[in-house]
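[job 0412] stage=fold_complex status=start
inputs:
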Amino acid sequence: MRGNLFAVAVNLVVLTVRAERLHVLLIERGERPFLGEWALPGGFVRPDEDLVHTAGRRLGEETGADTGHAVVGHLEQLASYAAPDRDPRGRVLSVGYLAFVPDMPEPTPGGSAAASAWWPVDGTGPLAFDHDRILADGVERAKAKLEYTTLAASFCPAEFTVTDLRRVYEAVWDASLDPRNFQRKVTSTEGFLVPTAALVTGGRGRPPRLFRRGDATALHPPMLRDPHRVNDRATAAPRHDALG
Amino acid sequence: MRGNLFAVAVNLVVLTVRAERLHVLLIERGERPFLGEWALPGGFVRPDEDLVHTAGRRLGEETGADTGHAVVGHLEQLASYAAPDRDPRGRVLSVGYLAFVPDMPEPTPGGSAAASAWWPVDGTGPLAFDHDRILADGVERAKAKLEYTTLAASFCPAEFTVTDLRRVYEAVWDASLDPRNFQRKVTSTEGFLVPTAALVTGGRGRPPRLFRRGDATALHPPMLRDPHRVNDRATAAPRHDALG
DNA sequence: TCAAAAGTGTTGTCGATACACCCATGG
DNA sequence: CCATGGGTGTATCGACAACACTTTTGA
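[job 0412] stage=fold_complex status=done
writing structure:
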C-alpha cells in the first residue's frame, strides 16, 4: 500500500446558546504541543472505532453525559483538515465534527484537558493548531443549517417555548427576528413543533405554551436569512439598552 | 502520540452532464483489492501534500488536463469515510471530493486504472469499497448546491446558452423546468450570467445568446426544488417521446 | 409558410414582512 | 389598571408558476 501514514484525530465544535449568545466549548490544553492554550476538544480515533463513534464518545465525556445529564442535541461531520504542517508532532489528519447541545451547567474537563469552558464564538482568542478555521467552518455550517432544517430545536431542552427557539435563531444568526412572524412560521410548519398541554407560569406577561420537537427534519420552505437584514441585532441591542 | 495510524486516500466524485443525464467518472481497478471492479478514481495523499492538492492532481490526471484540455469546473471537499473494515488492506481513511466538470471526450485512464468511463449516476452497479455511499453523498450534495449557488455553470463550457444551463439543472435534479421561467430567473440574477455578443447559429429555431459565467457564487433567493415537483421528467419524457 | 426554439408580458397564488390589535398574566 | 410578553389578524409586497404571446431562425 503506497502513501505515508497519518494519525487521525476528531475535533469537536460543540455549540450551545447561553445568555442569548452562541457559545463554543473549548478546553485548555494540559499537554504539549500548545500547552496552556485553548483548543477544540478532541481525541485520536481508536482501533476499530468509526469516526462518529469517536466523536460521540468525546462529546459525552466533555458534556458530562456520564453524569446522567441527558444530552440530546445533534452531531454531524463537518470537514477534514490535513495541512502537512498543522501539527508539530507529525502528520495528523483531523476530522471536524459539529455538535448542537442544549444549555447546561459548566462543563467538566474530560480527557487530557486542564480546564474547559463555554466561550462566546466571537470572543475566542487565537486557538491552538488550525482550530480557528475549524470553528469558523462549524459556525458557518450552523448558520446555514438553521435555514433549511429544524435543527435549531437541538439547542433547546426537551420542552421549550417558541421564544426559546427564536432566541436560538437570533443567537446563531446574530440577527433579530420579528417574534410574531417567527411564531407563525414555526407553529405552522408541519412536524416542527409538537404542542404540549403545559404553560410556563411565573414570568411576566401571558404564559407561553411549551412544545416538544416534532418528527420533521427539513424546513419547507426554508427560513431564509435575508442577506440585507443580517446583523440587525448588533445595532438594535444597544439602542434598546439606551431606552431602558 | 496516541492512536493508531491510517493510510489516507482521496476519492473523487467527478460529475458531468452528458446526453442530458448526470454522469460520474469511474475507473476499472487494475490491482487488488477489488481487481476488475468499478470504483471512484482516487489515490493516496503524498508526503507534504494537502488534501485538496491530492484531489486536484488526480482530477487533472483523470480528465486529461495535461493534454491541454481546459478543465475549469469546481472542486470541493465532500466528507471522510473511515469505517474500520472499509478496506481489506488495513485502516484507510478516505476523504471524498466532489468535482463538477464540463462534458468532454472519453477519459484516458490515469494512475493504476485498467480503464475509465463515464457512467450514468443511476446506472452504476455496486462499486468497490464503500464507494456507493460516497457517490450517493456526492450526488445529493450536488443537487443541494444547485439550489443556492451558481455552480451549475461549472458543468458548462466557457460559453453556453441558457438552455445549456437549464439542461444541467434538469439532469442533476432529474426534473423538468419551465424554460421561460428559468430564463427569467437566471438572467435576472445579478452576476450569474455575463452576456456576450455572440449567437449560436445553425440550429432549429431562434438562435440563442451565448453567456459566460459571472462573478456571483450565491443565488439569492435560491432556486428551490419543489419537493412535490421533483422527478416530473421521469414521467414527462416518455410522454414527449410518444408524442414525437 | 410552417415548425421549432428563444425570449417577453401578464396574471394568480403563495409566502414573507410589517404592524395593528387582542389575550393573559404579575405587580 | 398598567406593564409585559404571548399570540392572531391583515394589508402589502415580492417571487414564482402557469401560460398566452412575440421573435427569429431553418426547412
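[job 0412] summary: Helices of chain A lie at 51-63, 131-148, 162-173, 179-188, 232-243.
[job 0412] exit 0
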